[in-house]
Amino acid sequence: MFGYVRACKPELKIKEYEIYKAVYCSLCKKLGKSYGVLSRFTLSYDFTFLALLNMSMADGYDGFVQKRCAFNPLKKCNYCKDDAALQMPAAAAMIMLYYKILDNIADEKGIKKIGYCFLKPVFKRAHKKAARQFPQIETAVADYISGQSAVEKSNSDSIDLAADPTAKVMSEILMLCSTDERQKRVLSRLGYCLGRYIYLLDAACDLPQDIKTGNYNALKSNVSGDAKQYAKERITPNLYFCINEAAKAFELLELKKYKHILGNIIYLGLESTFTKELS
């Protein structure tokens, strides 16, 4: 994913920020342990949010322990003692990465295409392992790539149609954070709003480059004047709508911990991120 769902760090308490960092580092460690060292590079704040949300829906206390960082042995980081809740977010990251590689092979040309062709067999085994463990995610991501490809081939200028596949895959993935049917419906709505937010913000950020390269972008056909300013003006109201709807869903969740950290991401982090990205 894109790393757009992240906390507003200055507004976190020191203890909360340490937990946020610990989950990030623990997810990095889990990826390396489960899928190999190269899989660590798939890590983003989007999956850290998913990990925190998954942990927040479970009973019990999450203990943390200090260990040395795999990338910097001179540095000690906090890690979760029990990484069971990280298994699903790690698998989601791995599956998303593999399908993104396949998508890039289909879309890119020249040296970039060769590079992605080289990466495909590197991650193929890890992808199979993740898909066996979480077939629901495998199906959801496969449908997402297929749906996104169809939208791009149709060259649609509808931002609603273009954002729908990303919104749906996020909806399906977040539903896995609970077994309670009522909470699953709430998580589905939260995931849909966040997925839409992610797609629209990414489209706005990529618009100037997509115009140069000729790549698909739902905003491209109606550009007038400066592309960056046009994207900001066109997308900002939609992003606020996504944030407001996500906040409504978030308030219905029955969280057992980390409510303030997750609330920081929803109420403050989403707005501060898109404001910074589109400045």
Q: Could you give the topology of this structure?
A:
Elements: H1 14-35, H2 45-56, E1 64-68, E2 76-80, H3 87-107, H4 110-133, H5 135-154, H6 159-174, H7 181-213, H8 227-250, H9 259-277
Antiparallel strand pairs: 1-2
Q: Report the radius of gyration as a whole number of Å.
A: 19 Å
What sequence of helices (H) and strands (E) makes up the elements? HHEEHHHHHHH
Overall average residue pLDDT: 93
Largest sheet strand order: 1-2
Distance between the termini: 21 Å
Strand share of the residues? under 5%
Helix/strand structural class: mainly alpha
Largest sheet properties: 2 strands, antiparallel
Number of helices: 9
The unreliable regions are none
Number of strands: 2
Share of helix among residues? Answer: 55-70%
What would you call the quaternary organization?
Answer: single chain
Give the CA-based shape: globular
